[in-house]
Amino acid sequence: MRKALGKGLEALLPEATTSSASGERWIPTKQIRPNRFQPRCGIDENGLAELAESIRQKGVIQPLLVRRVEGGFELIAGERRWLAAQQAGLDRVAAVVREATDAESFELALIENLQREDLSPLEEAGAYRRMIDNFGLTQEEVAARIGKSRAAVANTLRLLGLPEEVKEFIGAGKLAMGHARALLAASPASRQIALARDVVERGLSVRETERLATVPQYRRQGKAVAVDVNVRALEEELCELLGTRVRLVSRGQGGAIEIHYHSADALERLLGFLRQRDLR
């Protein structure tokens, strides 16, 4: 089971086939609840609607994989099919019932999503972190269970340490996994944010991002980013504190602090952070 990621879910669970001998049965959709350990955080509504239409025409071709829980059944794999089946008006679906612990259920849900490439880089990183924190696994054990190298797992986990603004770019699909990994080579957080914004605005390739991430001073939209060393240090300190790009603007004896945000969610997070502190 530990090295079978590329072989399909059937290779992991030989019993989870579509034959009647495997224990397939019809279960009311209302008796099935979502997987509490689902690693995917969101579902494409357009894709779900297309799947629902396909199910209306041809039914659910592949049975769901579920386990018994108090009051009914819990999904292990097949959440999109289950949701689409409900959207299509089906009152029951074919499913294979398996015995599985919480850890096994989470592991199988993660593997199915990885096989289908349904997870964003951050969802994948979050899933690895949950396997480590919730189930006491080491990075080596996580890697063995999903059929990846320990280095690949470690590098993916590092994405969780990126600034919030960068993670929002990744979550929105504006930065690919290759871009995100390249940004890890840039430091401190202020440079990661500045470079991420440059990647998004200019459509830089992963190779270009990798090159710029290792350059102490790069040019942004034709303007050098070099500034007074003391000002830079203060900007970086504020950036680390707030998790977003900050610029200090001198105006005579005074000046202004520019705090940048690119979405309503980012603004709300900043306001929440500031409200928790006594600024008097």
Question: What are its keywords?
Answer:
280 residues, alpha/beta, 2 domains, five-stranded mixed β-sheet, two-stranded antiparallel sheet, 13 helices, 15% strand, elongated, disordered N terminus
What's the quick description here?
The protein has helices at 9-12, 45-58, 79-87, 102-116, 121-135, 139-146, 150-157, 164-171, 177-183, 189-202, 206-213, 229-242, 264-275, and strands at residues 24-28, 32-33, 64-69, 72-77, 92-98, 219-220, 223-224, 246-251, 254-259. It is α/β, with parallel strands linked by helices and 280 residues long.
In the residues, how many domains can be counted? 2
What class, by secondary structure content? alpha/beta
For the biggest sheet, the summary is: 5 strands, mixed
Strand content: 15-25%
Radius of gyration: 23 Å
Overall body shape: elongated
CATH architecture of the largest domain: Alpha-Beta Complex
Structure explained in plain terms:
By secondary structure, this protein is an alpha/beta fold. It has 2 domains: about 150 residues, Conserved hypothetical protein from pyrococcus furiosus pfu- 392566-001, ParB domain, CATH 3.90.1530; about 110 residues, no CATH class. It is built from 13 helices and 9 strands. It has a 5-stranded mixed β-sheet. A two-stranded antiparallel ribbon has the order 6-7. It has a two-stranded antiparallel ribbon with strand order 8-9. The termini are far apart.
